[in-house]
Amino acid sequence: MIKVAPSMLAADYMHLDSEIDKVVASGADVLHYDVMDGTFVPGITFGQGILKMVAKKPIPMDVHLMIANPIKHVREFAEAGAKYITVHQEAANFELRDTLRAIREAGCLAGVSVKPFTSVDAIADVLNEVDLILIMTVEPGKGGQKLIPFTVDKVRQVREMCKKAGVNPVIEVDGGVNLETAHLVTEAGAQMLVAGSAFFKAQDPAEFVKALKAMPQAE
Ligand code: DX5
Ligand code: ZN
User: Under a CB-based contact definition with an 8 Å cutoff, are residues 112 and 86 in contact?
Assistant: First the structure.
């Protein structure tokens, strides 16, 4: 079944406590926690200190590091309570393999992400080092954008790549996922859907999560 990852980026920060309770009560699988550093992406969001508090909630933390030099910060995010830690291929660059190993050594599940214009070939060498692959369906940096249609094919490509390599990481997508667009990515092979604005705008979050979970899956 499809897994759903509401993104805290779209929550009302004045009421984080009840916003996260809403995520837990909705039946979502993980909480997606977007970390931005003002360098890899223009914005700056939340760090390890807030994660430490948020991670006390009864839902696993899916940490998406949109930061330069992620290897420097992996251990701190692991200690703050992350279950998944995903780094960008574009940010980790030459140290990508070491970074992914550091995530696993810190006791977390390791994820790698590619931006819309990065080919999935860029991660072909690290397929054995990852538990999750995050295909960005918008440019990272802000919520509320429209899904970029050509990224859907990358989900298909990465699925094929994994099949050929005999590995089975979770395929996650992030950006512009809503009730209209979700089927495009699930049919292509996405197994975990990040939803920020669509989740927090939903009239009935539990119904929203249920509908995403029921999206048609690739065979
Ligand atoms: C964008 C973030 C996303 C963001 C998605 O850089 O990585 O996780 O919260 O927001 P929506 O679902 O509104 O596109
Ligand atoms: Zn994200």
Answer: yes
CA–CA separation, 202 and 181 (whole Å):
15
What's the DSSP call for residue 197? H
φ and ψ of 3, to 5 deg: -100, 145
For residue 7, the SS3 value is strand
Which atom in ligand 1 lies closest to the alpha carbon of residue 7?
9
On whether the CB atoms of residues 96 and 89 are closer than 8 A, the answer is yes
Q: Using a cut of 0.90, tell me whether the model's pTM lies above it.
A: yes
Ligand 1 binding pocket includes 59 (Cβ within 6 Å): no
The series of mean pLDDT values per 10 residues for the chain, 219 residues long, is: 97 98 98 98 98 98 98 98 98 92 98 98 97 98 98 98 98 98 98 98 98 94
Q: Which of 135, 217, 130 is nearest to 172 (CA)?
A: 135
Catalytic residue among 12, 17, 34, 131: 34
Nearest C-alpha neighbor of 87 from the set 67, 72, 106, 101:
67
Rounded to the nearest whole angstrom, what is the distance from the C-alpha of residue 125 to the centroid of ligand 2?
A: 23
The span from the first CA to the last CA of the chain, in angstroms, equals 12
9 CA distance to ligand 2 middle (Å): 8
